Amino acid sequence: MSTLNLNQLRQAFPILQETANGHPLVYFDNAATTQKPTLVIDAINQYYQQHNANVHRASHFLSTQATEQFELARSQVQHFINARHSHEIIWTKGTTESINLIAQSYGRSNLSPDDEILVSVMEHHANIVPWQIVAEQTGATLKVIPVTQDNQLDLSAFETLLTHKTKVLAICHASNSIGTINPVKEMIKRAKSVGATTLIDGAQAVAHFAIDVQDIDCDFYCFSGHKMFGPTGIGVLYGKSEYLNNMPPWQAGGEMIERVSFDGTTFNRLPFKFEAGTPNISGAIGLGAAIRFIQSLDSDARVQHEDNLRAIAIKRACAIPNLELVRQVQPTVSLLSFNISGYHASDIGMLLDKQGIAVRTGHHCTMPLMQHLGLDGTLRMSFSFYNTEAEVHHGFDCLEKILAAEKTTGNDSTPVPVSTLPDINALTESLLAARGWESRYRMIMQLGKQLPAYPEHLRSEQHIVPGCDSTVWLSHTQSNSASETITLEFSIDSNARIIKGLSVILLSYYNGRQPEDILSSNVETLFDTLGLSKHLSPSRNNGLHAINQRILAIAQNP
């Protein structure tokens, strides 16, 4: 892919010309969602401006136009994945809904207590939890394929687990956390030899390489539009006709019926049997436009460019001391996950965000895989064809500068006595005096050094605060004065430095107060004054509010 062509491609994505926190946007979170080209945005706008009407149900001009575009998009998906028939393409909200539909319609109707469902340890939660639910409903057993030391599926273990009791094999085509591309064609062939039905989660595959459902011979294939340059809220369930025809409807309402009376109802033909209610018409049309955009590109050049970006990133990552890459062995999609010893991934992720670099931190909705790897989570960089070599180098240059600055200011967090907690008013004034949010953020990080030591014996499951991106413990003590007035003292700790710093603010605000004072106070005003609500990431805001809600719950019932 030439530089000229890459520049032209980047111009097709309006958001890539934007800034983030005052810096040019560098977007390395493509595994979560991809950006949208003008072609897709225009297709959605054009539908609402010129063709807006419901589909299939009216005889007027606009409905005819909308229906034609809606069904054209279905045909485009059919050819994009090489399905045999367009009626094998079912519109859903996304991969998650597609898997739930299969689990509840096919799984619940066909599984029994002696049956087994086979998934892998690297699955996204969306390909684990629906099968756990249907296993509970039917009495079937969920079994798990482990991974090797190279973080590939253990095919020897797969052969052992695969028996005539296996009725469903549900695995991802590519891992969203570590990038591994699984040998789905070979696994499907083996599964069919024991009569198992096969489902492939293709959410991470469709944006990177060609999919041919007839070639891999899966029974079901699922993916989401927003991960392949299309809109959010639209997804695809591909299913072989013989399966879909024999499955009961999952949702009921308009469009999925042929005739309704109080004596009984007959259901519509495929694909409408599984598309109850008004569909996401603009989303389907936008996905069709995304497919046209993808098909206009040189697929080999795209793959080569993405592989090159990953190779550059790995080379730069390996040159950073204490950076620990999650092991990968080819084939993989273009992403890498890592941690840096002594730092929580979310702290590094937020510091990169202040430089305009968007990455993802956390467990990536793959908690079982993280538990297997012995990690709380990772920092993930995921690339697309519109990313550049210069962006990759810039991202790692910023990372090296962040680590150098942290080394200069010190990364120790030696606990100090409770009495040294700052006065909340003085602390607020000091933070507000900082020049810009980036300086304030670094002050909060340094503030974490003043967090009092947390009692070691209280680092238990019952004191963990749910809803936080990092691990957070919270406990409390209460004291009674001579007048029998209760006051509360809270202790907090976390494995993330930003949470340590935010905890100092909370302790300075709450400690020593009476329960009724805590309940009548409004710490949200302080959050707004300091700019936390605006400048913290959604996950960090959620964590801060989760800690605050736990404090309020304790004050409610001390």
Written overview of the protein:
- The protein is of the alpha/beta class and 558 residues long.
- The chain folds into 3 domains: 139 residues, Alpha-Beta Complex (Aspartate Aminotransferase, domain 1); 256 residues, Type I PLP-dependent aspartate aminotransferase-like (Major domain) (Aspartate Aminotransferase, domain 2); 139 residues, Alpha-Beta Complex (Sufe protein. Chain: A), CATH 3.90.1010.10.
- The chain contains 21 helices and 19 strands.
- The strands form 6 sheets. Strands 4-10-9-8-7-5-6 form a 7-stranded mixed β-sheet, sandwiched between helices. The chain has a 4-stranded antiparallel β-sheet with strand order 13-14-17-16, covered by helices on one side.
- Helix 2 packs antiparallel against helix 10, helix 11 packs parallel to helix 14 and helix 16 crosses helix 17.
Total count of domains: 3
Distance between the termini: 64 Å
* Oligomeric state: single chain
Mean pLDDT rating: 92
**Shape designation:** globular
Number of helices: 21
Largest sheet: 7 strands, mixed
CATH superfamily of the largest domain: Type I PLP-dependent aspartate aminotransferase-like (Major domain)
Radius of gyration: 26 Å
Helix-strand category: alpha/beta
Number of strands: 19
Unreliable runs: 412-419
Strand content: 15-25%
CATH architecture of the largest domain: 3-Layer(aba) Sandwich
What name does the CATH topology of the largest domain carry? Answer: Aspartate Aminotransferase, domain 2
Look at the structure and give the CATH class of the largest domain.
Alpha Beta
